[in-house]
Amino acid sequence: TTVYPEITASLSPVDAGIPVSFTPRVVGGSNDYVNYTWNFGDGNTAWGNRTVNQTYPSPGTYPVTLTVTDSDGNVGTGSLNLTVDPPLTAVPTLSGTEGTAPQLFQGQVSLSGGTTAPAPGLPGTLSNVTVGWTFPGGVRGSGQVFSHLFPFPGSVPGVLFVNDTGGSRLTFPLSENVTGGTPAYSWPVLRADPSADGLARGPGPLAPHVQAQIDLAPGAILGLVTAPDGPVLVAYPSGSLWALDPTTLEVRWQVNLAAQGVRFVGGPAVADGSVFLPTNGGKLLAFNLTTGNEDWSASVGAPGMTFLSPLPF
């Protein structure tokens, strides 16, 4: 009977210079396989029935074959074509690595080689690659173009990393040195980000650079308000109300009345510990600012009446 070897590669394609593993699987024949011969397509060979490793220093397409012989003398060959891409290269360009507070750190990374490919619909960006950076204290971000405002003096080390799906892992040291100056506003500024249908948090009105963002999809945001000493309230026309922590953007509580046919027709307003929202049908709902539980509701007009403007407080 025929012997059927199969080969599985740990990376395909793989970057030049990155080790790739080949794992065998054999069926058929006598089930007693006595010889495994590997040919990596680059002039190198190996023997054995376990996972084998190979590194290709040059780009190209390599035919990898595995020939297996069983105890009855039956022979079978399996193969795959492995694509080896040029080595991944990354060239970071940084600015604002030193100066007086508030100091804006900016950078971009030029990429080539590896498994990078143009991202569909995103001119100038690449897919199959991850670019990220991190500084102590939870300051981090991602993307080929990045920025962060350092509002206070200090010297901090950081790391820039570039990974691709071909196995490359590149790292670059970062350093930010900020001397005394006029610190930026330290309290957060919250704003709707329509491009991401979410909420963005920045360090202050003089520095509108996003530090954190939460995705509040689906649906366009109807209204957003920051309650005094309380959460950030985000309302949707669909009848969904979110209460977010103003610092971390974590959800404190959520109300969803869409299943009841309730739709909000105006943004949230806050007074005396309650959140007021006008709804379809001329109904006014009040939710507890702390718990999100309904405090009360009132119909303020005839059936079918709707609010034409936000509440005046």
From TrEMBL:
<dbReference type="InterPro" id="IPR000601">
    <property type="entry name" value="PKD_dom"/>
</dbReference>
<dbReference type="InterPro" id="IPR018391">
    <property type="entry name" value="PQQ_b-propeller_rpt"/>
</dbReference>
<feature type="domain" description="PKD">
    <location>
        <begin position="3"/>
        <end position="91"/>
    </location>
</feature>
<dbReference type="Pfam" id="PF18911">
    <property type="entry name" value="PKD_4"/>
</dbReference>
<protein>
    <submittedName>
        <fullName>PKD domain protein</fullName>
    </submittedName>
</protein>
<dbReference type="InterPro" id="IPR022409">
    <property type="entry name" value="PKD/Chitinase_dom"/>
</dbReference>
<dbReference type="InterPro" id="IPR015943">
    <property type="entry name" value="WD40/YVTN_repeat-like_dom_sf"/>
</dbReference>
<dbReference type="InterPro" id="IPR013783">
    <property type="entry name" value="Ig-like_fold"/>
</dbReference>
<dbReference type="InterPro" id="IPR011047">
    <property type="entry name" value="Quinoprotein_ADH-like_sf"/>
</dbReference>
<dbReference type="InterPro" id="IPR002372">
    <property type="entry name" value="PQQ_rpt_dom"/>
</dbReference>
<dbReference type="Pfam" id="PF13360">
    <property type="entry name" value="PQQ_2"/>
</dbReference>
<dbReference type="InterPro" id="IPR035986">
    <property type="entry name" value="PKD_dom_sf"/>
</dbReference>
